[in-house]
Amino acid sequence: MATRLLLLFTLLFTTGVHAVEVRVDVYGADCNSGLGYAIATGINGTPPYTFAWSEGSTGPEASLPPGQAYTVTVMDNTGSSASQTFDIYQGASTIWLGDLGFPGLEPCLGECNGGFRLYLPRVVGGYTFDISPTMQIQESLPYSPQSVEYIVRYEIIGACAGASVDLTVYSDCGSGSTTVTIPIPIADPTVNIIQVSGSCTNSSNGYVAGSVSWTEPFLFTGWQLQAVDALGAALPAQAINFSGTPGVPFEIYGLHPGDWDLRFTSTEEIGSLQLPCVVEFPLVVTDLGIACGAISGKAFVDVNDNCIQAFGEPDLPQTVVVAQPGDHYALTNGAGQYNMSLPFGTYTVTTSSAVYQEHCGVSTTPFTLSAGQPNIVLNLADTSLVGLDVMVSAASGAARPGFPMNMSILLRNLTGVLAGNATVTLTYDPVLNYVSATPAPTSINGNTLTWASASLGALQQRSFNVSFAVPADVGLLGTTLSNTVAASVVDPEANLLNNTFLHQRTVTAAYDPNDKTARTSSRQSTDLYFIDGDDWIDYTIRFQNTGTDTAFFVVITDTLPPTLDPATFLSMAASHSHTIALTGQGVLSWTFPAIQLPDSNINEPRSHGFVSFRIKPRTPLLPGTSIENIANIFFDYNPPVITEPSVLTAEFTTVMQVLGSGQGLTLMPNPTDGPLTIVLEDETFSGGWMRLMASDGRVVMVDRMTSTRMDLDLSKIAPGLYTIAITSTKGRSVVSRVALH
C-alpha cells in the first residue's frame, strides 16, 4: 500500500510541472573593453539549473566578444533541457535616439504628468541621462516577453502639456540628443447621464445610470468610478474598462438625496512612478420628501431551503417584485437586487413569477415604513414551482422589399436548474434569403438553421442574431412571413409549451420606423384579444435613428395602461444589449447606454433596433375592453418619439371563425381520441402554418401546411378543448375548435 501511495503522489506531483524554458538577456559590447555579456535564466522545470555556453562558460552569465550564433543550454534537476541562440552586437559609437520613437503619454487636464517612453539597446555599463526640465525616469519591464531580450524600456514622466524636453543619453560607446514635445492633454471624457432616480429624505435609494466615453484613445488603464457625496463619503468603486469600447455603461445604487460627484480615477503605476488622473462630474439626486421610505433586498433561489443565500445559490435576475397595497413594482437587476420608494405605511412584498415562489414567510409578513424606520431590507428566498423550464422567443425589425430584415432569438433558462447542452433551430419563411448569423449556425439545411449550443446554466440566456434579405418584389407587400424557432435541452423539462415560438412579420413598404405592435398568444389577430382563446400578449417596440448624427444612447419608456398587469411582465428578444427597469405602478424602461446607433443616412441597415416583451391583461377582462398602449423613444437628449397606439379589443371567439369569403376548415373526426385530419377548401392556405392551442392560449403544436390536407396524431396531448388555427402566407386565418377525449 505504501508503494502505491508513493507512486500516486509522484504522478500527481510531476503532472503539474511544466517543461523547462530559458530566457536570455543580451548586452551589446562595451566600447572600452570590447566585451558584451549575456544572462541566462531557467524558467519552469525543476531547479537547480545547470548552464552550458557554446564558448565554454558554465555559470548563468557569460562575457562574450561580438559575434553571432552563440548558444546556451539550460538543464533542470530532472534532466529536461532547453536552448537559445543569440548574437552579441558591437556597441555603437553614437546613440541614434531619433530612430527609436517616443510614444507620448498624454497628461490629464490640469496635471503635469505627461511624458514619453524610450527604447534603447541593452549595453554593458548602461546609460546616464541629462533631462531638461527635470523629470522622473524609471527602467521598466523588457520591451516584449520574448525568449531573447536585446531592448530595455524607460519611462520618463513629469512634464506639463506642450513642454519641450531636451534629452541627452550617454553610454561608453557615445551619446545622442533629441528634443521631445509633450502631447496636449486628453479631452475630458463625455458622460451621458441617462437616468437619475430620486431618494427619500432619510434613505439612500437613489440611482443613476449612464455611460462614459473618450473621443480619442487613452493610454492610462486601471480606471475606477466612484460616487462621492458633498461630505467626502464615497460608495464602493467599480472598475471601468475603456479598452476598445466606444462607450462604457455604468449604474450606481445607494445614493441619498443631495449633491454628488461622479469621480473617475486612474493611477498608472510604472515601477515606482505613478500617474494620477482624476475627472469629476456633478450629480444631484432629488429629494422625494420626508414621508417616504425605501425597501430593498435580493431575490435568489434557495436551493437548500434554509432561507439564507448560500454560496452557489443563484440570484434571480429580471424578476418582478410587487409591494401591496397600491400596486408598486420593481424589477430585479442582473444580481437579483431590487429597490423601491414607498410612501410611509404598511405593506407586504413578494416576487411575481410563474416559476418561482417566496417560501420563507416574507411575502405574508407585513412591514411598516415610518419616520423611525425609513429603510428596510427584505431578501426574498424563492423555490421552484416547475423544475427546469427553458423558453425561446424571437423579434425582428421591419420586412421591406429589397431591404435587410434582422431577427434576434433569445434562449432563456427561466429556472435555477442546469439545463445541459441546448439545440436551437430556426425554420425561416422560404421567401427570405439567408445572409448571415452571429454566432454562425452549426448546420444549414434548406431553410432551417441549427445551433448546437453549450450547456445552458441556471438562469442563463443566450442570443442568436440572424440577417435576412427580403426580395425586391413589390408583389410581396401584405405577405405574412412566418418563422418558427424551437429549442431543446438535454435535461428533462417540466414545461415544453414555451420551447416553440412562431414569429410573424408582414411585408410593408412605407411605414413608421418607430412603432409598437402587438400579437396575442393565439396568433389569430393583431387587432383582437380573444378572452376565451388568448393568454398573453407579445409586444415589439421598433426604433430607428432617422436623424443626422449617431445616437450615443437610446431609452425607451412604456407606462403600462391599467388593462395590463405589470406583475406578469417577461422580457424577450432584443436587438442590442440593454438594461431593463420596472418602477412605480407600472413604468417600464429599456436603456441602451452605449448603443452608438448610426443615422439612416450613413448606415440604414444598422440604424434600426427593437425590444420585445410578454405580458398578460388584468382580469377580469370584459368584452369590448380596449387595451391601448404606446411607447416613448428617446434618442440621446432629444424630445421623445411617441409611437402610434397599439390597440387590441377584447372579444370572445366563435366556434367557427372564417376571415375572408369562401374559405372553410373541416376537422375529422371531432371529437377525437388522437387521430385528426384537417381539410381546407382554399388552396391559398397551402404553405401556411397550423397551430394547435390550449384553452389558455398556449401553443401546443406548430407545423407548416404542405397541402390543403394534414393528418395529425394528438394521442399524446392531454384531453380538453383546443383551437386549430391555420394562417396563410398572406396573413388570412381560419379557426376552429377540436375536443380531445
Describe this structure in words.
This protein is mostly beta strands and 741 residues long. The protein has 7 domains: 18-88, Immunoglobulin-like (Sandwich); 97-181, Immunoglobulin-like (Sandwich); 190-285, Immunoglobulin-like (Sandwich), CATH 2.60.40.10; 292-313 and 331-384, no CATH class; 400-511, Sandwich (Immunoglobulin-like); 512-651, Immunoglobulin-like (Sandwich); 656-740, Immunoglobulin-like (Sandwich), CATH 2.60.40.3080. Helix content is 2%, strand content 51%. It contains 1 helix and 59 strands. Strands 22, 25, 27, 29 and 30 form a 5-stranded mixed beta sheet that branches. It has a 5-stranded antiparallel beta sheet with strand order 35-36-33-38-39, with no helix packed on it. A 5-stranded antiparallel beta sheet has the order 45-46-43-49-50, with no helix packed on it. A hairpin with a 5-residue loop joins strand 55 (689-693) and strand 56 (699-704). The longest helix has 14 residues, at 2-15. It is globular, with a radius of gyration of 34 Å. Mean pLDDT is 85; it is low at 1-16 and 654-663.
What would you call the shape? globular
Give me the count of strands: 59
CATH first level of the largest domain = Mainly Beta
Tell me the CATH architecture of the largest domain: Sandwich
Indicate the low-confidence ranges by residue numbers: 1-16, 654-663
What's the story with the biggest beta sheet?
5 strands, mixed
Radius of gyration, in Å, reads: 34 Å
Distance between the termini: 67 Å
Structural class: mainly beta
Summarize model confidence as the mean pLDDT. Answer: 85
Give the amount of beta strand, in percent. over 45%
CATH topology of the largest domain: the name is Immunoglobulin-like
Helix content: under 10%
Number of helices: 1
Total number of domains: 7
